[in-house]
């Protein structure tokens, strides 16, 4: 997979303490835009977290979100990954080319972090500083992800929850320190 960076020229000038805004000119690639931006033009630092989460899920799965369609009801990559996460089979989404070169716990943790980043409610998403901390520290116990934005329900989904064994396995960690989501101790530096 070759990384491509685009959408230059969309930058806006913000005040020093401004972390969110709104626009009537919505530009970008659907599927990578946070739902609040795509539907209402509302953007914040959590909009980039959403996009990062989509990229993480693409890297792990080897599938592009922008052209994703899976028979069985998953219309987007986040829904597909969520279904496997919920059913306790997250490694089923992994790109087959990675099967010989991965650590099971690291892949599951990356999927977990990716799903936290694509939460529908921006307040439920971690900051990028928290994501970096999660990726670098295995002593943090991660919050359980909720259904991602744009998750499409079907009758088969009603009442489905992750298996108790899978959730118990995800909450175990050697010398784990609970991650509360309160990022008061994480400093975010903004350029001027």
From TrEMBL:
Residues 1-139 form the Protein kinase domain. GO terms for molecular function: ATP binding; protein serine/threonine kinase activity. Keywords: ATP-binding, Kinase, Nucleotide-binding, Serine/threonine-protein kinase, Transferase. InterPro entries: Kinase-like_dom_sf (IPR011009), Prot_kinase_dom (IPR000719), Ser-Thr/Tyr_kinase_cat_dom (IPR001245). GO terms for cellular component: plasma membrane. Gene3D superfamilies: Transferase(Phosphotransferase) domain 1 (1.10.510.10). It comes from the Eukaryota. Residues 164-192 are annotated as: Disordered. The keyword Thylakoid does not apply. GO terms for biological process: defense response to bacterium. This is Protein kinase domain-containing protein. The lineage of its organism: Eukaryota, Viridiplantae, Streptophyta, Embryophyta, Tracheophyta.
